Amino acid sequence: MRRTPRLVLAAVLLALATACTADPAPTTPASGSEDPYLRGSGTLRVLAGSELADLRPILDEAREATGVTVQLTEIGTLDGIERVASGAAARDHDAIWFSSNRYLELHPDAGDKIGVDAKVANSPVVLGLRTSTAQRLGWDKNRPTWSEIAAAAGEGEFTYGMTSPATSNSGYSALVGVAAALAGTGRALTTDEITALTPRLQSFFTGHALTSGSSGWLADAYVHRQTAGVPLGGLINYESVLLSLNAGGRLAEPLTVIYPADGVVTADYPLTLLAGAGEQARANHAAIADFLRRPSTQAKIMERTHRRPAVTGISLASDFGPTDGGLVELPFPTRYEVANKLVSSFGDTLRKPARTIYLLDLSGSMRGNRLEGLQSALLGLSGADTSLSGELTRFNGREQVILVPFSTTVQEPRRFDVPSDDPRPTLDRIRADVQGFSANGDTAIYDALARGLELARDLDTADPGRFTSVVLLTDGERTVGRSLDAFRSLHAGLPATIRSVPVFTLLFGEGNVGEMTEIATLTGGRTFDARTGSLGAVFKEIRGYQ
Protein backbone atom coordinates (compact mmCIF):
# COMPACT_ATOMS: atom_id res chain seq x y z
CA MET A 1 0.00 0.00 0.00
CA ARG A 2 1.31 3.49 -0.87
CA ARG A 3 2.40 5.51 2.16
CA THR A 4 1.13 9.05 2.77
CA PRO A 5 3.68 11.88 3.14
CA ARG A 6 2.81 12.16 6.85
CA LEU A 7 3.61 8.48 7.41
CA VAL A 8 6.92 8.89 5.60
CA LEU A 9 7.79 11.86 7.83
CA ALA A 10 6.76 9.92 10.91
CA ALA A 11 8.94 7.01 9.87
CA VAL A 12 11.99 9.25 9.42
CA LEU A 13 11.53 10.98 12.79
CA LEU A 14 10.80 7.67 14.46
CA ALA A 15 14.01 6.21 13.05
CA LEU A 16 15.93 9.17 14.48
CA ALA A 17 14.34 8.69 17.90
CA THR A 18 14.78 4.91 18.10
CA ALA A 19 18.36 5.11 16.87
CA CYS A 20 19.18 6.78 20.20
CA THR A 21 17.12 4.60 22.51
CA ALA A 22 15.97 1.07 23.05
CA ASP A 23 12.44 2.09 23.98
CA PRO A 24 9.62 -0.29 23.06
CA ALA A 25 7.70 0.14 19.83
CA PRO A 26 5.41 3.18 19.63
CA THR A 27 1.90 2.84 20.89
CA THR A 28 -1.16 3.77 18.87
CA PRO A 29 -3.85 6.20 20.01
CA ALA A 30 -6.95 4.49 21.35
CA SER A 31 -9.04 5.96 18.58
CA GLY A 32 -6.87 4.20 15.99
CA SER A 33 -7.40 7.18 13.68
CA GLU A 34 -3.92 8.70 13.96
CA ASP A 35 -0.42 7.52 13.07
CA PRO A 36 1.73 5.79 15.73
CA TYR A 37 3.25 8.17 18.26
CA LEU A 38 6.86 9.16 17.79
CA ARG A 39 9.05 7.97 20.65
CA GLY A 40 11.85 9.64 22.56
CA SER A 41 13.66 8.88 25.78
CA GLY A 42 14.35 10.60 29.07
CA THR A 43 13.68 14.28 29.77
CA LEU A 44 13.17 17.36 27.62
CA ARG A 45 14.29 20.30 29.78
CA VAL A 46 12.22 23.35 28.91
CA LEU A 47 12.54 26.96 30.08
CA ALA A 48 8.93 28.16 30.08
CA GLY A 49 6.52 30.93 30.94
CA SER A 50 4.38 30.48 34.05
CA GLU A 51 1.13 30.56 32.04
CA LEU A 52 1.92 27.10 30.64
CA ALA A 53 1.35 25.41 33.99
CA ASP A 54 -2.18 24.49 32.91
CA LEU A 55 -0.70 22.20 30.23
CA ARG A 56 0.94 19.87 32.76
CA PRO A 57 -1.90 17.27 32.55
CA ILE A 58 -1.47 17.23 28.76
CA LEU A 59 2.28 16.76 29.21
CA ASP A 60 1.63 13.83 31.56
CA GLU A 61 -0.30 12.21 28.73
CA ALA A 62 2.57 13.02 26.38
CA ARG A 63 4.97 11.16 28.66
CA GLU A 64 2.80 8.03 28.52
CA ALA A 65 2.52 8.24 24.73
CA THR A 66 6.08 9.22 23.79
CA GLY A 67 8.35 8.18 26.65
CA VAL A 68 9.51 11.79 27.09
CA THR A 69 9.13 13.68 30.36
CA VAL A 70 8.80 17.43 29.82
CA GLN A 71 10.46 19.26 32.71
CA LEU A 72 9.21 22.86 32.85
CA THR A 73 11.29 25.51 34.62
CA GLU A 74 9.31 28.73 35.00
CA ILE A 75 10.94 32.06 34.22
CA GLY A 76 9.82 35.61 33.51
CA THR A 77 9.79 36.88 29.95
CA LEU A 78 12.71 39.32 30.22
CA ASP A 79 14.89 36.99 32.28
CA GLY A 80 14.15 34.22 29.78
CA ILE A 81 15.17 36.41 26.84
CA GLU A 82 18.41 37.34 28.59
CA ARG A 83 19.26 33.72 29.36
CA VAL A 84 18.68 32.70 25.76
CA ALA A 85 20.57 35.64 24.25
CA SER A 86 23.57 35.15 26.55
CA GLY A 87 23.73 31.42 25.85
CA ALA A 88 23.05 30.57 29.50
CA ALA A 89 19.75 28.84 28.72
CA ALA A 90 21.46 26.25 26.52
CA ARG A 91 23.75 25.17 29.37
CA ASP A 92 20.94 23.53 31.33
CA HIS A 93 17.93 23.41 28.99
CA ASP A 94 17.09 21.85 25.66
CA ALA A 95 14.20 24.08 24.61
CA ILE A 96 12.20 27.18 25.49
CA TRP A 97 8.44 27.61 25.55
CA PHE A 98 7.15 31.15 25.89
CA SER A 99 3.78 32.48 24.79
CA SER A 100 5.54 34.20 21.89
CA ASN A 101 9.05 34.46 20.43
CA ARG A 102 8.50 37.82 18.72
CA TYR A 103 10.30 39.96 21.28
CA LEU A 104 13.07 37.37 21.65
CA GLU A 105 13.65 37.21 17.89
CA LEU A 106 14.32 40.98 17.83
CA HIS A 107 17.23 40.64 20.27
CA PRO A 108 20.49 41.11 18.33
CA ASP A 109 22.18 38.22 20.16
CA ALA A 110 19.33 35.71 20.04
CA GLY A 111 19.09 34.77 16.36
CA ASP A 112 21.75 32.04 16.46
CA LYS A 113 20.61 30.70 19.83
CA ILE A 114 17.25 29.24 18.79
CA GLY A 115 16.34 26.47 16.39
CA VAL A 116 13.16 24.92 15.03
CA ASP A 117 9.85 25.60 16.74
CA ALA A 118 6.40 24.07 16.78
CA LYS A 119 3.38 26.34 17.31
CA VAL A 120 1.15 24.65 19.89
CA ALA A 121 -1.90 26.92 20.34
CA ASN A 122 -3.21 30.44 19.73
CA SER A 123 -4.72 32.99 22.07
CA PRO A 124 -5.29 36.66 21.13
CA VAL A 125 -4.96 39.39 23.75
CA VAL A 126 -8.40 41.00 24.04
CA LEU A 127 -10.64 42.92 26.43
CA GLY A 128 -13.09 41.28 28.80
CA LEU A 129 -15.77 43.61 30.24
CA ARG A 130 -18.41 42.96 32.84
CA THR A 131 -21.53 42.14 30.86
CA SER A 132 -23.48 45.11 32.21
CA THR A 133 -20.67 47.49 31.18
CA ALA A 134 -20.41 45.96 27.71
CA GLN A 135 -24.17 46.31 27.25
CA ARG A 136 -24.15 49.92 28.45
CA LEU A 137 -21.48 50.77 25.89
CA GLY A 138 -23.17 48.77 23.15
CA TRP A 139 -20.10 46.58 22.69
CA ASP A 140 -22.00 43.35 23.25
CA LYS A 141 -23.42 43.84 19.74
CA ASN A 142 -20.90 46.06 17.93
CA ARG A 143 -17.15 45.49 18.02
CA PRO A 144 -15.33 48.72 18.98
CA THR A 145 -11.90 49.75 17.72
CA TRP A 146 -8.97 50.22 20.06
CA SER A 147 -9.41 53.97 19.55
CA GLU A 148 -12.97 53.73 20.88
CA ILE A 149 -11.80 51.54 23.76
CA ALA A 150 -9.04 54.03 24.61
CA ALA A 151 -11.45 56.97 24.48
CA ALA A 152 -13.98 55.24 26.76
CA ALA A 153 -11.27 54.29 29.28
CA GLY A 154 -9.93 57.83 29.24
CA GLU A 155 -13.41 59.21 29.92
CA GLY A 156 -13.86 56.95 32.95
CA GLU A 157 -16.43 54.63 31.36
CA PHE A 158 -14.67 51.58 32.81
CA THR A 159 -11.54 50.48 34.66
CA TYR A 160 -9.48 47.44 33.84
CA GLY A 161 -6.60 45.23 34.91
CA MET A 162 -3.61 44.49 32.66
CA THR A 163 -0.25 42.85 33.26
CA SER A 164 3.01 44.78 33.16
CA PRO A 165 4.56 44.95 29.67
CA ALA A 166 7.99 44.76 31.32
CA THR A 167 7.42 41.27 32.74
CA SER A 168 4.47 39.66 30.97
CA ASN A 169 3.77 38.91 27.31
CA SER A 170 0.02 39.57 27.62
CA GLY A 171 0.70 43.12 28.86
CA TYR A 172 3.33 43.71 26.22
CA SER A 173 1.03 42.37 23.48
CA ALA A 174 -1.75 44.67 24.69
CA LEU A 175 0.59 47.67 24.62
CA VAL A 176 1.80 46.78 21.12
CA GLY A 177 -1.75 46.23 19.91
CA VAL A 178 -3.26 49.45 21.19
CA ALA A 179 -0.25 51.53 20.07
CA ALA A 180 -0.24 50.00 16.56
CA ALA A 181 -4.00 50.45 16.23
CA LEU A 182 -3.89 54.08 17.42
CA ALA A 183 -1.06 54.82 14.97
CA GLY A 184 -3.30 53.51 12.18
CA THR A 185 -0.47 53.07 9.68
CA GLY A 186 -0.85 49.34 9.10
CA ARG A 187 2.88 48.82 9.60
CA ALA A 188 5.30 48.37 12.47
CA LEU A 189 5.75 51.32 14.84
CA THR A 190 8.73 53.66 14.89
CA THR A 191 10.19 55.38 17.96
CA ASP A 192 8.95 58.77 16.73
CA GLU A 193 5.41 57.41 16.46
CA ILE A 194 5.56 56.15 20.05
CA THR A 195 6.44 59.66 21.22
CA ALA A 196 3.64 61.20 19.15
CA LEU A 197 1.11 58.70 20.55
CA THR A 198 1.98 59.45 24.19
CA PRO A 199 -1.07 61.68 24.99
CA ARG A 200 -3.56 59.16 23.58
CA LEU A 201 -1.86 56.25 25.29
CA GLN A 202 -1.82 58.15 28.59
CA SER A 203 -5.56 58.65 28.24
CA PHE A 204 -6.05 54.94 27.65
CA PHE A 205 -4.01 54.03 30.73
CA THR A 206 -6.01 56.29 33.04
CA GLY A 207 -8.44 53.36 33.17
CA HIS A 208 -5.68 50.93 34.19
CA ALA A 209 -6.52 50.15 37.82
CA LEU A 210 -4.83 46.79 38.50
CA THR A 211 -1.40 45.57 37.42
CA SER A 212 0.35 42.22 37.67
CA GLY A 213 3.44 40.33 36.66
CA SER A 214 1.52 37.35 35.30
CA SER A 215 -1.74 36.78 33.43
CA GLY A 216 -2.88 34.08 35.87
CA TRP A 217 -2.38 36.16 39.00
CA LEU A 218 -4.15 39.08 37.30
CA ALA A 219 -7.27 36.92 36.99
CA ASP A 220 -7.04 35.92 40.65
CA ALA A 221 -6.58 39.55 41.71
CA TYR A 222 -9.61 40.57 39.64
CA VAL A 223 -11.72 38.07 41.59
CA HIS A 224 -10.23 39.26 44.90
CA ARG A 225 -11.15 42.87 44.06
CA GLN A 226 -14.77 41.79 43.65
CA THR A 227 -14.88 40.19 47.10
CA ALA A 228 -12.97 43.12 48.65
CA GLY A 229 -15.63 45.56 47.44
CA VAL A 230 -13.39 47.34 44.90
CA PRO A 231 -14.52 45.75 41.61
CA LEU A 232 -13.06 46.54 38.22
CA GLY A 233 -14.85 46.95 34.93
CA GLY A 234 -12.83 44.28 33.20
CA LEU A 235 -9.50 42.79 32.15
CA ILE A 236 -7.15 42.96 29.20
CA ASN A 237 -5.72 39.47 28.97
CA TYR A 238 -5.44 36.37 26.85
CA GLU A 239 -8.75 35.20 25.45
CA SER A 240 -8.03 31.85 27.13
CA VAL A 241 -7.81 33.46 30.58
CA LEU A 242 -11.06 35.38 30.11
CA LEU A 243 -12.94 32.29 28.89
CA SER A 244 -11.49 30.25 31.76
CA LEU A 245 -12.74 32.84 34.26
CA ASN A 246 -16.23 32.65 32.78
CA ALA A 247 -16.16 28.85 32.90
CA GLY A 248 -14.74 28.68 36.43
CA GLY A 249 -17.77 29.96 38.33
CA ARG A 250 -15.79 32.50 40.37
CA LEU A 251 -17.34 35.64 38.90
CA ALA A 252 -20.35 37.45 40.30
CA GLU A 253 -20.93 38.82 36.80
CA PRO A 254 -19.57 37.14 33.65
CA LEU A 255 -17.23 38.87 31.26
CA THR A 256 -18.21 39.75 27.71
CA VAL A 257 -15.14 39.20 25.55
CA ILE A 258 -14.51 42.18 23.26
CA TYR A 259 -12.53 41.58 20.07
CA PRO A 260 -11.34 44.99 18.80
CA ALA A 261 -12.41 45.49 15.19
CA ASP A 262 -9.04 46.87 14.11
CA GLY A 263 -7.02 43.91 15.31
CA VAL A 264 -5.22 42.00 18.05
CA VAL A 265 -1.79 40.56 18.87
CA THR A 266 -1.90 36.78 19.27
CA ALA A 267 0.26 34.43 21.33
CA ASP A 268 1.18 31.23 19.47
CA TYR A 269 3.09 29.28 22.16
CA PRO A 270 6.03 27.98 20.09
CA LEU A 271 7.88 25.03 21.67
CA THR A 272 11.36 25.99 20.45
CA LEU A 273 14.48 23.86 20.35
CA LEU A 274 17.64 25.66 21.40
CA ALA A 275 20.46 25.74 18.89
CA GLY A 276 23.14 23.20 19.64
CA ALA A 277 20.77 20.78 21.39
CA GLY A 278 21.97 17.19 21.23
CA GLU A 279 20.56 14.42 19.07
CA GLN A 280 18.47 12.96 21.86
CA ALA A 281 17.01 16.38 22.70
CA ARG A 282 16.08 16.86 19.04
CA ALA A 283 14.36 13.48 18.96
CA ASN A 284 12.50 14.30 22.20
CA HIS A 285 11.45 17.70 20.88
CA ALA A 286 10.16 16.11 17.67
CA ALA A 287 8.14 13.54 19.64
CA ILE A 288 6.57 16.08 21.99
CA ALA A 289 5.86 18.55 19.19
CA ASP A 290 4.20 15.80 17.14
CA PHE A 291 2.07 14.76 20.12
CA LEU A 292 0.99 18.33 20.95
CA ARG A 293 0.04 19.19 17.36
CA ARG A 294 -2.06 16.07 16.69
CA PRO A 295 -5.75 16.85 16.18
CA SER A 296 -6.79 14.77 19.19
CA THR A 297 -4.37 16.64 21.49
CA GLN A 298 -5.24 20.01 19.98
CA ALA A 299 -8.91 19.35 20.76
CA LYS A 300 -8.00 18.54 24.39
CA ILE A 301 -5.91 21.71 24.70
CA MET A 302 -8.84 23.75 23.39
CA GLU A 303 -11.30 22.09 25.75
CA ARG A 304 -9.14 22.23 28.88
CA THR A 305 -7.30 25.55 28.48
CA HIS A 306 -9.57 27.56 26.13
CA ARG A 307 -6.71 28.17 23.69
CA ARG A 308 -7.38 28.00 19.96
CA PRO A 309 -5.90 25.13 17.94
CA ALA A 310 -2.64 25.77 16.13
CA VAL A 311 -3.55 23.37 13.32
CA THR A 312 -6.37 23.62 10.80
CA GLY A 313 -9.39 21.39 10.51
CA ILE A 314 -10.58 21.56 14.14
CA SER A 315 -13.94 23.21 14.80
CA LEU A 316 -13.80 25.92 17.44
CA ALA A 317 -15.96 25.63 20.55
CA SER A 318 -18.98 27.93 20.69
CA ASP A 319 -17.53 30.27 23.33
CA PHE A 320 -14.78 31.53 21.00
CA GLY A 321 -15.29 34.82 19.22
CA PRO A 322 -14.72 35.77 15.56
CA THR A 323 -13.42 33.02 13.29
CA ASP A 324 -12.66 32.62 9.59
CA GLY A 325 -10.48 35.71 9.32
CA GLY A 326 -12.53 37.78 11.73
CA LEU A 327 -9.43 38.65 13.78
CA VAL A 328 -6.92 40.96 12.13
CA GLU A 329 -3.32 40.56 13.37
CA LEU A 330 -1.77 43.91 14.22
CA PRO A 331 1.89 44.55 13.24
CA PHE A 332 4.55 43.79 15.83
CA PRO A 333 7.68 45.98 16.12
CA THR A 334 10.45 44.92 13.76
CA ARG A 335 13.32 46.65 15.57
CA TYR A 336 14.68 45.84 19.01
CA GLU A 337 15.08 49.48 20.05
CA VAL A 338 11.42 50.17 19.23
CA ALA A 339 10.27 47.22 21.32
CA ASN A 340 12.31 48.45 24.29
CA LYS A 341 11.14 52.04 23.80
CA LEU A 342 7.55 50.88 24.25
CA VAL A 343 8.34 49.24 27.59
CA SER A 344 10.43 52.09 28.98
CA SER A 345 7.84 54.66 27.87
CA PHE A 346 5.13 52.66 29.59
CA GLY A 347 6.95 52.79 32.92
CA ASP A 348 8.17 56.37 32.77
CA THR A 349 5.36 58.28 31.02
CA LEU A 350 2.30 56.23 30.00
CA ARG A 351 1.03 54.27 32.98
CA LYS A 352 -0.32 55.53 36.27
CA PRO A 353 2.68 56.15 38.52
CA ALA A 354 3.47 53.63 41.22
CA ARG A 355 3.81 54.00 44.98
CA THR A 356 5.97 51.21 46.40
CA ILE A 357 6.32 50.79 50.16
CA TYR A 358 9.17 48.48 51.23
CA LEU A 359 9.01 47.13 54.79
CA LEU A 360 12.57 45.94 55.40
CA ASP A 361 13.60 43.74 58.33
CA LEU A 362 16.90 45.05 59.72
CA SER A 363 16.88 42.93 62.88
CA GLY A 364 20.07 41.29 64.15
CA SER A 365 19.51 38.08 62.18
CA MET A 366 19.90 40.06 58.93
CA ARG A 367 23.60 40.79 59.58
CA GLY A 368 26.13 39.61 57.04
CA ASN A 369 25.17 38.01 53.74
CA ARG A 370 21.44 38.60 54.18
CA LEU A 371 21.83 42.35 54.60
CA GLU A 372 24.29 42.46 51.71
CA GLY A 373 21.76 40.60 49.53
CA LEU A 374 19.01 43.07 50.44
CA GLN A 375 21.25 46.04 49.71
CA SER A 376 22.33 44.56 46.37
CA ALA A 377 18.69 43.99 45.34
CA LEU A 378 17.66 47.58 46.11
CA LEU A 379 20.78 49.01 44.50
CA GLY A 380 19.89 47.03 41.37
CA LEU A 381 16.43 48.61 41.25
CA SER A 382 18.11 52.00 41.67
CA GLY A 383 20.10 51.64 38.45
CA ALA A 384 23.09 49.48 39.34
CA ASP A 385 21.69 46.52 37.36
CA THR A 386 22.40 47.35 33.72
CA SER A 387 21.00 44.12 32.23
CA LEU A 388 17.90 44.24 30.02
CA SER A 389 15.65 43.11 32.87
CA GLY A 390 17.43 45.52 35.21
CA GLU A 391 16.90 48.46 32.86
CA LEU A 392 13.21 47.69 32.38
CA THR A 393 12.41 46.97 36.05
CA ARG A 394 14.29 49.85 37.69
CA PHE A 395 12.42 52.49 39.67
CA ASN A 396 10.43 54.48 37.12
CA GLY A 397 10.05 58.17 36.54
CA ARG A 398 7.13 59.60 38.59
CA GLU A 399 7.36 56.64 41.00
CA GLN A 400 7.15 57.18 44.75
CA VAL A 401 9.58 54.85 46.57
CA ILE A 402 9.20 54.57 50.33
CA LEU A 403 11.67 52.61 52.46
CA VAL A 404 10.51 51.63 55.96
CA PRO A 405 13.23 49.75 57.88
CA PHE A 406 12.20 48.00 61.08
CA SER A 407 13.63 45.89 63.85
CA THR A 408 12.54 46.29 67.49
CA THR A 409 10.68 49.41 66.41
CA VAL A 410 9.59 50.81 63.06
CA GLN A 411 11.82 53.57 61.73
CA GLU A 412 10.58 56.73 60.09
CA PRO A 413 9.70 56.23 56.40
CA ARG A 414 12.22 57.50 53.85
CA ARG A 415 10.30 58.83 50.83
CA PHE A 416 11.84 59.35 47.40
CA ASP A 417 9.87 60.86 44.49
CA VAL A 418 11.62 59.86 41.27
CA PRO A 419 11.30 62.55 38.56
CA SER A 420 10.90 61.68 34.89
CA ASP A 421 13.33 64.20 33.45
CA ASP A 422 16.45 63.61 35.57
CA PRO A 423 16.05 60.63 37.94
CA ARG A 424 19.76 60.12 38.66
CA PRO A 425 20.10 62.42 41.72
CA THR A 426 17.08 60.79 43.39
CA LEU A 427 18.30 57.29 42.55
CA ASP A 428 21.69 58.25 43.99
CA ARG A 429 19.98 59.29 47.24
CA ILE A 430 18.17 55.94 47.40
CA ARG A 431 21.47 54.12 46.91
CA ALA A 432 23.17 56.17 49.62
CA ASP A 433 20.35 55.45 52.04
CA VAL A 434 20.42 51.71 51.30
CA GLN A 435 24.20 51.53 51.67
CA GLY A 436 23.80 53.00 55.18
CA PHE A 437 21.60 50.14 56.44
CA SER A 438 22.77 48.24 59.52
CA ALA A 439 21.14 45.30 61.31
CA ASN A 440 20.36 45.09 65.04
CA GLY A 441 17.50 44.29 67.39
CA ASP A 442 14.31 42.23 67.38
CA THR A 443 11.54 41.73 64.78
CA ALA A 444 8.31 43.78 64.96
CA ILE A 445 6.72 42.41 61.77
CA TYR A 446 3.11 43.37 62.42
CA ASP A 447 3.95 46.83 63.74
CA ALA A 448 5.74 47.39 60.42
CA LEU A 449 2.77 46.06 58.42
CA ALA A 450 0.37 48.28 60.33
CA ARG A 451 2.60 51.29 59.71
CA GLY A 452 2.91 50.45 56.02
CA LEU A 453 -0.85 50.27 55.43
CA GLU A 454 -1.54 53.35 57.52
CA LEU A 455 1.04 55.15 55.42
CA ALA A 456 -0.66 53.86 52.26
CA ARG A 457 -3.99 55.21 53.55
CA ASP A 458 -2.59 58.66 54.31
CA LEU A 459 -0.71 58.95 51.02
CA ASP A 460 -3.64 57.65 48.98
CA THR A 461 -5.91 60.26 50.55
CA ALA A 462 -3.55 63.02 49.43
CA ASP A 463 -2.67 61.48 46.04
CA PRO A 464 -5.11 58.73 44.98
CA GLY A 465 -4.04 58.32 41.34
CA ARG A 466 -1.31 55.72 41.90
CA PHE A 467 -0.75 51.97 42.00
CA THR A 468 0.10 51.31 45.65
CA SER A 469 1.72 48.11 46.85
CA VAL A 470 3.62 46.93 49.91
CA VAL A 471 6.61 44.56 49.95
CA LEU A 472 7.46 42.81 53.23
CA LEU A 473 10.92 41.28 53.63
CA THR A 474 11.70 39.47 56.87
CA ASP A 475 13.98 36.54 57.64
CA GLY A 476 12.36 35.53 60.92
CA GLU A 477 9.23 35.43 63.04
CA ARG A 478 7.68 38.26 65.02
CA THR A 479 9.41 38.61 68.41
CA VAL A 480 8.05 41.97 69.62
CA GLY A 481 5.10 44.24 68.95
CA ARG A 482 1.55 43.49 67.90
CA SER A 483 0.44 39.99 66.92
CA LEU A 484 -1.00 38.58 63.70
CA ASP A 485 -4.47 38.62 65.31
CA ALA A 486 -4.06 42.32 66.12
CA PHE A 487 -3.01 43.01 62.54
CA ARG A 488 -6.06 41.14 61.20
CA SER A 489 -8.30 43.37 63.30
CA LEU A 490 -6.55 46.51 62.11
CA HIS A 491 -6.78 45.38 58.49
CA ALA A 492 -10.53 44.69 58.78
CA GLY A 493 -11.10 48.27 59.88
CA LEU A 494 -9.30 49.93 56.98
CA PRO A 495 -11.18 51.48 54.03
CA ALA A 496 -11.93 49.04 51.20
CA THR A 497 -9.41 50.72 48.89
CA ILE A 498 -6.62 50.17 51.43
CA ARG A 499 -7.74 46.63 52.30
CA SER A 500 -7.19 45.88 48.61
CA VAL A 501 -3.60 47.19 48.64
CA PRO A 502 -1.59 44.02 47.94
CA VAL A 503 1.16 42.98 50.32
CA PHE A 504 3.85 40.94 48.61
CA THR A 505 5.66 38.80 51.15
CA LEU A 506 9.04 37.15 50.64
CA LEU A 507 9.83 33.71 52.03
CA PHE A 508 13.36 34.30 53.28
CA GLY A 509 15.61 32.80 55.90
CA GLU A 510 13.65 31.37 58.82
CA GLY A 511 10.49 33.38 58.14
CA ASN A 512 7.12 31.88 59.06
CA VAL A 513 5.82 30.47 55.77
CA GLY A 514 2.26 30.04 57.04
CA GLU A 515 1.97 33.61 58.32
CA MET A 516 3.60 35.13 55.24
CA THR A 517 1.17 33.23 53.03
CA GLU A 518 -1.82 34.32 55.13
CA ILE A 519 -0.79 37.99 54.92
CA ALA A 520 -0.53 37.77 51.14
CA THR A 521 -3.89 36.02 50.85
CA LEU A 522 -5.62 38.45 53.23
CA THR A 523 -4.47 41.49 51.27
CA GLY A 524 -4.79 40.07 47.76
CA GLY A 525 -1.02 39.95 47.33
CA ARG A 526 1.31 37.09 46.56
CA THR A 527 4.13 35.21 48.24
CA PHE A 528 7.54 35.02 46.55
CA ASP A 529 10.14 32.42 47.49
CA ALA A 530 13.51 34.04 48.12
CA ARG A 531 14.99 31.15 50.13
CA THR A 532 17.07 29.99 47.19
CA GLY A 533 18.62 32.12 44.48
CA SER A 534 19.24 35.84 44.65
CA LEU A 535 17.06 38.45 46.31
CA GLY A 536 17.75 40.67 43.31
CA ALA A 537 15.93 38.29 40.96
CA VAL A 538 12.92 38.14 43.29
CA PHE A 539 12.77 41.92 43.72
CA LYS A 540 12.81 42.30 39.92
CA GLU A 541 10.01 39.76 39.62
CA ILE A 542 7.90 41.70 42.13
CA ARG A 543 8.31 44.83 40.02
CA GLY A 544 5.80 43.44 37.55
CA TYR A 545 3.13 43.61 40.27
CA GLN A 546 3.76 47.23 41.32
UniProtKB/TrEMBL annotation:
<protein>
    <submittedName>
        <fullName>VWA domain-containing protein</fullName>
    </submittedName>
</protein>
<keyword id="KW-0732">Signal</keyword>
<dbReference type="Pfam" id="PF13531">
    <property type="entry name" value="SBP_bac_11"/>
</dbReference>
<dbReference type="InterPro" id="IPR036465">
    <property type="entry name" value="vWFA_dom_sf"/>
</dbReference>
<dbReference type="InterPro" id="IPR002035">
    <property type="entry name" value="VWF_A"/>
</dbReference>
<feature type="signal peptide">
    <location>
        <begin position="1"/>
        <end position="22"/>
    </location>
</feature>
<feature type="domain" description="VWFA">
    <location>
        <begin position="355"/>
        <end position="546"/>
    </location>
</feature>
